[in-house]
Amino acid sequence: MRRFQNLLWSRKAFVDSVKVYNHSYIYMPAFSMKTGTGPSLRVYYTLEDFDAKQAVLFANPNFLRDIGKFWKGKGIHAKRLSTGLFLVSAALGLCEEVTIYGFWPFSVDLHGKFISHHYYDNVLPDSGFHAMPEEFLQLWFLHKSGVLRMQLEPCEDPLIQSSA
């Protein structure tokens, strides 16, 4: 909404910025809340108008509601779960193995180095909106019990590994 002026004026810039993702999906919460419908549809039509390689997936509001209830029962009390937790929940239902990266609610990494947050503006999440530490804790429990794998360090570059 900010970076691309709600896709009212910067449509080509948006399409150019997602080209790096090739034939991937862009997840949009079009029908989960009123404020998401307009921007989600603008993303869909923008990608269609420019014949982009990416496809838009719209979240099912019933799935979002049920997942929200599930995680609330596990102790995550937030106005809204993060998009990441919704996608991890979907992956756990669809995939045999799930590895996640980027679910680190602290401002420094394991080595004390500052890390960025949020995928588009590097702003820390509003603690009154999302409950990132609670989400992290639940995902850590799933990691420790073997349900998923949580990658806390950057992934190794395969080119560097193969030459060693």
UniProtKB/TrEMBL annotation:
Pathway as given in its UniProt record: Protein modification; protein glycosylation
Pfam families in the record: Glyco_transf_29
Membrane topology: Single-pass type II membrane protein
Keywords: Glycoprotein, Glycosyltransferase, Golgi apparatus, Membrane, Signal-anchor, Transferase, Transmembrane, Transmembrane helix
Localization per record: Golgi apparatus membrane
Annotated Gene3D superfamilies: Glycosyl transferase family 29
Keyword Transmembrane helix found: yes
PANTHER family assigned to the protein according to its UniProt record, in alphabetical order: ALPHA-2,8-SIALYLTRANSFERASE (PTHR11987), ALPHA-N-ACETYLNEURAMINIDE ALPHA-2,8-SIALYLTRANSFERASE (PTHR11987:SF3)
Protein's recorded name: Alpha-N-acetylneuraminide alpha-2,8-sialyltransferase
Naturally occurring in which organism (per UniProt): Mycteria americana (Wood stork)
